[in-house]
Design a protein that fits this description.
Blueprint lengths: L11 E11 L1 H9 L7 E2 L7 E2 L6 E5 L1 H6 L5 H7 L4 E6 L2 E6 L2 E2 L11 E5 L2 E2 L13 E8 L3 H4 L6 E7 L7 E9 L3 E12 L2 E12 L16 E15 L2 E16 L10 E16 L5 E20 L9 E21 L5 E22 L17 E16 L4 E16 L11 E19 L2 E12 L3 H5 L1 E3 L5 E3 L7 E14 L2 E13 L2 E5 L6 E6 L4 E13 H4 L7 E17 L15
Length: 597
Amino acid sequence: MSMFSPCATAPAVAALVLAGAFAPAFAQEVRNAPTILDEIVVTSTGRPEPRSRITGTVQVIEGERITRSTAHSVTELLAENAVGFLSEWTPGQTSINIRGGASDGQGKDFRSQVLVLINGRRAGTANISKLSPADVDRVEIIRGPASVIYGSQAIGGVINIILKNGRNTTGNFADIQGGSWGLLQGRAHAAGRNGSDDFYIGISGGRRDSYHSGAGGGLLANTQYQRFGVTGAFGRQLNDNHRIDLTVRSDGIYDAGFRGSSWSTFNRDERTNASFDLVYSGKTDSDFARWTAHSYLVADRDVFRWAAPNSATVAQRTRLDLNRRHLDIMGLRFQPIFNLWAGNELLLGFDAERSWLRSQRYRESVVAPYTNMAQVSPQDNNQTDSVMAFYAENSQRLFDDRVILRAGIRHTRGSTSFDPTPNLANQATGSRPYDATTYTVGGTYRATDYLSFRTGVSTGFRSPTATELAGNYTVLVGTQIFGNPNVKPETSRQYEVGTTFALNGWSLDAALFQNVISNRIITRLRPGSTTTSDYVNNAGDVTVRGIELQFGVDVLRAFSAQANGWHWSVTSNGGYNFFMRDGGAAATANSNQVERM
């Protein structure tokens, strides 16, 4: 069964931010500076490039806005900036939908169609609620498929969380906040440089009690949480051409309440994400070539202390349902870039990654003796994934850099191994290979210094998980879901046109898109059954068309006002999906209400 509720035929999301910041050293420069159409972004093409050269839509949440925000998680930060359609199931779990691609809710965040990155590599989770914004320098969002650079899961979009380090942050900072329902959160960091070395050390934490609903509303029991995170980033400039960066971090949410439709109100979640990154970057003296080698380790942990004492099926009533999931990732990315001739730049890439997902589950009955409860398989199969990919992306600047043409292609080969899983009946252990070829092509035209146009076509894919291929698990309310060894990878294809305008402190970005998702993996009830489902590919394509707007104004500069040390900006972002159609919906269903959207 789907964990998502269908949304309206034409949903919209929008956010408005008003901000004033006292910045004496910066304000006068901003007031007198020319309009910047070419903000440098890195996520869309995997390397720093001016925004006007990007063929897709990129949204950026800058560090200044993050510092002013009171968001306790990346979920709230993205919601403030209308990044997508967000569903916050609990303080520790959020699902997100961007251009029809969705992450999953209620814990199953390893099969997302929206890819979450930290410093350009896979975060290991699509659950942005377990991530804190305290040590985040900026967030860059690609709207639409981006599998050429990033591989599986980049169907609806990519969210790249770029952390603070000793190069983008200096000085010491501390902040503490309090609020209703026992809210208390704080953050602090120290950053600096010493010769060829630089460093950043940050720490953050927070808590909140359960909150009340509305004016005079009752207490919503079990909505509390605690947070804690720490980040250390250390860099050394070996010489003019070579540099090494090391980042170690841990972040998570603890004792997070989990309320469910028929579940008890004493359920608790613990969700953490830790990583180790080592990056070596270099270049030749002639700037003919530059390169980046990025190795990383990720440890993502989920502990769900759930129960279903009021389940409709008496035999499934539990006083404890403990699920533990560990995802460990080891990966390497190598990206050399060559300036072949005037105006031409070629990026080549090699990705290799191996990951291990391990799950355990233990249940106790509400009836004594409690320990004789029949045990069932966990909600995710044990699996081992191996992935290797080669890709290339080329761009050519023409007519004094006013026209940019670019194209890229990626070939990904991988295998998903179904490993022995506790209490899984009739296990289909073994390995299944897969491969996918994705591409992107497009161009930009800079009509004037303040107006540019873009168009492009891009594709994406997501490979099935072992659970979708060979699973057999029971959800808390007793429904049983089986895997299907015949499900195909999900794919997407997007067409987009857009324009960006920026002049005298005013800026506007508009995009019109169509994203078609094929073979979306969903669940379907078996004929004649109300409690048994199977994973299947959707029988038809899901088509989403929409428009997105990003608007901003530097108020004092736009009206030629004297800054006097103030920087006042207004931003407004919004998206509207005016067409959504499920080509595989049953004849008796509303095809405008698309599953997992």
